[in-house]
Design a protein that fits this description.
Elements: H1 10-20, H2 25-35, H3 46-59, E1 63-67, H4 73-81, E2 87-92, H5 95-108, E3 114-118, H6 121-130, E4 137-142, H7 149-159, E5 160-168, H8 185-199, E6 203-208, E7 214-219
Parallel strand pairs: 1-2, 1-4, 2-3, 4-5
Antiparallel strand pairs: 5-7, 6-7
Helix pairs in contact: 3-4, 4-5, 6-7
């Protein structure tokens, strides 16, 4: 027994996957295709994708937002959890990676639910705010360039409705955020976001040790 979060050994991780994850075959196929890419480390873990699906369903979310799409696994997971009239705006700048995403979204039959916007995410987020999109999203996920994490966060909080939920990936950054000897730009940017959210009275928050660390922030009413 312990009153602290236990470390995941390889044996325990295997048990968790075998007794928890119910990954749809289309998600597993996309994950396998992504694993062959040099940038495969950018892929979220299947247990994290499933956890996000649970959050979307618990929220009853219909209007979702994603900053950073890569090959589309997280977007596909969220889209599969949405009701038929749900929609996800996905922000990315890569035509190459999102071509893979589009193929799998179409195969899964959810491509009509996903509005992919190929532009710098800050441009897309600002346009959503300028067009009256504030306080209109139920769920958002950020998994993009770390240097803009705080800027993304500030805009997404404005876009979320009261009670809406934001999830931010890589919040523990393979443990580097806790190592004072690590001071590269990406690590410091993630630290800055974690500190910002921890102090932000506009949200309720929790930093969850799933995947590479998932920072959750619920916008207060």
């Amino acid at each position: 027994m312990t009153n602290a979060t236990i470390a995941l050994t390889a044996q325990l991780q295997r048990y968790l996957l075998e007794h928890s994850v119910r990954e749809a075959p289309i998600l597993a196929s996309l994950r396998q295709v992504t694993a062959a890419l040099p940038q495969a480390g950018m892929q979220i873990a299947p247990e994290q994708g499933q956890f996000m699906q649970l959050l979307v369903r618990v929220l009853g979310a219909k209007r979702c937002l994603e900053v950073g799409t890569f090959t589309g696994y997280s977007a596909l997971a969220v889209a599969l959890a949405l009701p038929g009239d749900g929609a996800l705006i996905a922000c990315d700048v890569s035509v190459e990676w999102t071509q893979i995403a589009r193929r799998f979204w179409a195969e899964a039959g959810v491509d009509a639910r996903i509005d992919l916007r190929l532009a710098p995410a800050l441009t897309t987020l600002d346009a959503l705010l300028e067009s009256g999109g504030g306080s209109s999203f139920d769920f958002a996920f950020i998994d993009a360039d770390k240097g803009n994490y705080v800027a993304y966060y500030e805009r997404v909080v404005e876009l979320l409705r009261p009670g809406g939920l934001l999830a931010v990936d890589n919040a523990l950054w393979d443990g580097a955020v806790a190592d004072p000897g690590v001071n590269d730009a990406d690590t410091n940017a993630i630290r800055a976001l974690n500190d910002r959210v921890h102090r932000d009275e506009r949200v309720d928050m929790s930093l969850v040790p799933i995947g590479d660390g998932l920072l959750l922030a619920r916008k207060r009413g």
